[in-house]
Amino acid sequence: MTPEEISTFFRDVFPEADSMFAIESAGERAAVVRLRFDPDHHVRPGNTVSGPALMTLADTAVWVALLAEIGPSAHSVTVNLSIDFLRRPAPGDVRAEVRLLKLGRRLAVGDVLMYSAAGGDPVARASVTYAIPSGDGRGAPG
């Protein structure tokens, strides 16, 4: 799926994602997804982007990379998400760069680095595993 096709799919199955995220690229077992910062929903005390917002970005970004490879699959689900918060992001958009490390018939594993739009070093790193319903995967046995 192309970024445009994924955005259309999101509007159908995950309508709030259309306003929350911008898909900058997707394909070749990778994706770049930007969280559109909303000060009413994504800020926490201390004037930084909240941990739940970063976790949502990581989860969604891996799903985008997965959809680009296997096509529309509303039933793929997160089975594990581990995140390291590395530094406080300034309030503003956050960019996630995803690499799928494994794409099997049943599981996909992605590595995510997140960067503040203000630039600099990564603000968080996540590992996300998705379960792929049978019939949806296109990778090696796994």
Commentary on this structure:
Strand 7 and strand 8 (124-131) form a beta hairpin. The radius of gyration is 14 Å and the shape is globular. By secondary structure, it is an alpha+beta fold. The chain has a 6-stranded antiparallel β-sheet with strand order 1-2-6-7-8-5. A two-stranded antiparallel sheet has the order 3-4. The longest helix has 20 residues, at 51-70. The protein has one domain (3-131): Thiol Ester Dehydrase, Chain A, CATH 3.10.129. It is 25% helix and 38% strand. It has 3 helices and 8 strands, in the order H-H-E-E-E-E-H-E-E-E-E.
List the helices and strands in order: HHEEEEHEEEE
As a whole number of angstroms, the C-alpha radius of gyration is 14 Å
CATH architecture name: Roll
Determine and state the CATH class: Alpha Beta
Q: Provide the structure class.
A: alpha+beta
Percentage of β-strand residues: 35-45%
- Low-confidence sequence ranges: 137-142
CATH topology: Thiol Ester Dehydrase, Chain A
Write the layout of secondary structure elements.
Layout lengths: L2 H11 L2 H5 E7 L2 E6 L7 E2 L3 E2 L1 H20 L6 E9 L8 E10 L3 E10 L7 E8 L11
Antiparallel strand pairs: 1-2, 2-6, 3-4, 5-8, 6-7, 7-8
